[in-house]
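Translate sequence into structure tokens.
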Amino acid sequence: METKILKVDEESLALAREIIYGGGLVAMPTETVYGLGADGTNGEAVKKIYAVKGRPSDNPLIAHVHKDYDIGKLVYVEQDYALKLKEAFMPGPLTMVFYSKGVISSVATCGGDTLAVRIPSHEGAQAFLKAVDLPVVAPSANISKHVSPVTAQHVYDDLNGKIPLILDGGKCSGGIESTVLDVTEKVPRILRAGLITREMIASVAGDCVYAQHKETDKVRSPGVKYGHYMPRAETARFAAEDWKTALKYYDKQKQSGRNPVLLIENSLKDEVGERNVIFLGEDAKEMAANLFYDLRAAERASDLIVVVEPRGKGGVYDGVMNRLTKAAKKFDG
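Result follows.
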């Protein structure tokens, strides 16, 4: 299969519509990461997503719709605060989990009674979703467990020959996946941290908590059960306060003949000397925007990635740390 990368325009959107209506897959840009989309009402099409990615069949998908789509066709909106959150943060990097009306294939919901819904703000995503005018279920457009893609080239690197079309909308600005919020109960629960923070949600809904994931829980969100975001190079993660230990480990590995690279926040620029370094950013939003791009750059350039956790806490830092803890095990010596 030939995989085309095309800029988002009338011609590519017409092709994308044809592919989706024919039961095929299209990679689309969003403001967070690139998604691998299929007609959410077509179970056979949805199965192709799992097959192409090598994704576990019990890991549910998010339904993406354009800003004028009536989500009431897909889900029951039972909590008043959910409408306020939709008004405040959609379109944008927020996914909300509602009870499903069963319109979306049970393959996408993994047989569950809930559905995650998102309205991306990216212009290219909106154009694509309006062109097809149906709910498109989509996980990240990469091989399962690999670092999520934030450019069309990243998608191509993972899925060349496996899908017919990648819509190129440029580099994703957000850089990490959307916040996933369970809105089926009286208090909203964050299932996956992201750019829409607990504080932002609480300011609208009155309260917000983090879900305490248990092995016995019914999975309502992607990104909570399996390892994710993992580079193909060996990766060692150090706590922020252990940055000196990380530098010593880097030096030891370099002396042994390896080709390590450091991923570290900008505030430590004066401490790293002549080491091979990729700087994550100045603050949480910049780190989020850079994280997956930098992890992919690091895996191409080295055989060992030494990551030092950021020192910041709360807010968007929670989303960054969520990805880092799944991407790399903490170094234990």
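Note: The CA atoms of residues 3 and 164 lie 5 Å apart.
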